[in-house]
Specification:
This protein is mainly beta and 122 residues long. It has one helix and eight strands; from the N terminus they run αββββββββ. Strands 1-8-3-6 form a four-stranded antiparallel β-sheet, with no helix packed on it. A four-stranded antiparallel β-sheet has the order 2-7-4-5, with no helix packed on it. The protein is elongated and about 75 Å long. The model has no long low-confidence stretch (mean pLDDT 86).
Length: 122
């Protein structure tokens, strides 16, 4: 087989190392975790953010509340992905939510308490 063509992929020529590398690199560019690091970010509750990174990110949010009958949520594209309810007014409730946010998707978190930590893999 003549594999000197960098485009590769014809019926008579095999793929080259360069074309295989380009194919693999193109596929991994949009995979979660590839070339990304966890970052501690500052975000506001009830504010909607948009993932405009060009690839998926992961969000991990730790919320804390001590108010009876309170809810904490993680919302992606308008859907409640995670919900925690504090039924114990005299106890502190810690809720940790995590979700993969596709490129172009929106996300937010709500609680009657506060954000203890907000990390993003980006």
């Amino acid at each position: 087989l003549d594999n000197s063509d960098t485009a590769g992929g014809s019926a008579t020529r095999g793929a080259t190392q360069q074309s295989i590398k380009a194919y693999v690199d193109a596929g991994t560019a949009t995979q979660i975790g590839v070339g990304q690091t966890w970052q501690l970010v500052t975000r506001s509750l009830s504010t909607t953010y948009t993932n405009s990174t060009g690839g998926p990110i992961e969000v991990s949010v730790r919320l804390v509340t001590s108010t009876a009958q309170s809810n904490s949520t993680l919302i992606v594209d308008g859907l409640t992905i995670a919900l925690a309810q504090n039924q114990f007014g005299d106890r502190v409730l810690y809720s940790t939510f995590s979700a993969v946010i596709p490129n172009g998707s929106t996300y937010s978190a709500t609680t009657s308490g506060s954000v203890q930590a907000w990390h993003e893999l980006r």
